[in-house]
Design a protein that fits this description.
4-stranded antiparallel beta sheet; 11 helices; 10 strands; globular; disordered C terminus; binds adenosine-5'-triphosphate; binds magnesium ion
C-alpha cells in the first residue's frame, strides 16, 4: 500500500524462534503517521515479537513475510535488506527494562550519545537535549547521574534517549509496568506531548484504562495473530471477542455500557456523560476506579 501516511507495513509476517516457538503466525498491518497505537494481549501472545519487527530488531522468518518502512522523504525499505542503524533512524525502540539502555554517568550524556553519533552540531545538541528532558519532565536534570533517578524517572530517561533521535515512530514496550499510578501518567503524558508534535507512538500495554485514555488505535493480539484492530471505542465494545484473550475493557467502559452509555471509555468520559453527577461526593474525586490493570 502506498498511502502517503503509511510508515510501517507488515505483510504475511511469521516469526519462529530458534527453539521452534511460533510467536507470529501471519500478521498483516499498516501503521500510519500520527497514530498513537496500543498493542494489547495476554502474556506470550506475541506483542513484543511483533513490535520488534517494526524496526528490524527481528525479521520475518518466513520467506514471504515482509516488513517495509516508509522513511520520511526517502525510499521505502524492506527491513530484511537494510542495516539496523538505518532502520533505527525511522523507528526507535525502548525496551521494557529501561536499565538495558542506560549507560552514561549523566542524563545529558545519555541523551547526547545517539544524536552526536549522527553528527549533530553542539548547539543543536544542547537545545535538543534540554527540550527532550523537558518533554519527559526531567528538566534541569542534565547533570544528574541516572543511578540517582527513581525507576519511573529512568524509564522516562530511556524514552527521552529514543525521542531525542527524532525518529518518526517511537515504540515503547510496556512503559508503565511496575510504575505507580502517578508515574504511569507522567510517562504517558510525555508520550502524549511527543505525539502532539506530530510523531507516531506505539506502546505495548496491559493497562486498559491508560490505553483507553491515550491511544487512538488498539491492536489486540492473540496467539501470534491480530485478534482485532480499531479505535479504542471499537475494540473495547467487542467484549465477547476480547474475552478470548482475557482482556477486560476498562472498568469505566464496562460500567457505562451497563448503564446504557455506549462510547464511554474513561472515567472522564463517564463524568462528562453523566453531567458531573459522579463528582458529587467530594470535589475532584470520581467514584470509578482508575486502576484497570487486568491482563
Ligand atoms: N527469545 C525467545 N526465544 C524463544 N521463544 C521466545 C523468545 N521470546 C519470546 N518467545 C516466545 O514467543 C511467544 C511470544 O512472546 P512475546 O514475548 O512476543 O509475547 P508478549 O505478548 O510480548 O508477552 P508478555 O506480555 O509476557 O511480554 C511466547 O511463547 C514466548 O515464550
Ligand atoms: Mg512482551
Amino acid at each position: 500500500m502506498n498511502h502517503p501516511d503509511t510508515v510501517i507495513e507488515l505483510s504475511g509476517v511469521e516469526h519462529s524462534y530458534g527453539n521452534g516457538t511460533k510467536a507470529l503466525l501471519g500478521v498483516d498491518l499498516t501503521v500510519r503517521r500520527g497514530e498513537f497505537v496500543a498493542i494489547i494481549g495476554r502474556n506470550g501472545s506475541g506483542k513484543t515479537t511483533l513490535a520488534k519487527h517494526f524496526n528490524g530488531l527481528l525479521r520475518p522468518t518466513n520467506p514471504g513475510g515482509t516488513v517495509r518502512l516508509h522513511t520520511r522523504g526517502g525510499p521505502i525499505v524492506d527491513t530484511r535488506g537494510t542495516r539496523l542503524h538505518h532502520l533505527a533512524a525511522t523507528v526507535g525502540y525502548v525496551f521494557q527494562n529501561p536499565d538495558r539502555q542506560i549507560f552514561h554517568d549523566t542524563c545529558r550524556e545519555e541523551l547526547e550519545y545517539g544524536p552526536r553519533n549522527l553528527g549533530a552540531d553542539p548547539a543543536t545538541l544542547a537545545r535538543e537535549v534540554s527540550e527532550t528532558l523537558e518533554l519527559v519532565g526531567l528538566q534541569g536534570r542534565e547533570e544528574t547521574n541516572p543511578i540517582h533517578l527513581s525507576r519511573g524517572e529512568r524509564q522516562r530517561l530511556a524514552i527521552a534517549s529514543t525521542l531525542v533521535m527524532g525518529c518518526d515512530v517511537a515504540v515503547i514496550d510496556e512503559p508503565t509496568t511496575g510504575q505507580d499510578r502517578a508515574e504511569s501518567r507522567r510517562i504517558l503524558d510525555s508520550l502524549a506531548h511527543h505525539h502532539a508534535l506530530g510523531r507516531t507512538v506505539v506502546i505495548i500495554s496491559h493497562d486498559m484504562a491508560l490505553v483507553a485514555e491515550y491511544a487512538t488505535r488498539v491492536i489486540a493480539m492473540r496467539k501470534g495473530r491480530v485478534l482485532t484492530d480499531g479505535s479504542p471505542a471499537e475494540v473495547f465494545s467487542q467484549r465477547e471477542v476480547l474475552q478470548e484473550t482475557n482482556i477486560r475493557p476498562p472498568q469505566a467502559a464496562v460500567l457505562a455500557a451497563e448503564l446504557g452509555l455506549p462510547g464511554v471509555l474513561t472515567v472522564d468520559d463517564a463524568v462528562r456523560e453523566m453531567g458531573g453527577a459522579l463528582t458529587g461526593a467530594r470535589p475532584g474525586a470520581t467514584s470509578l476506579p482508575h486502576d484497570d490493570k487486568v491482563c
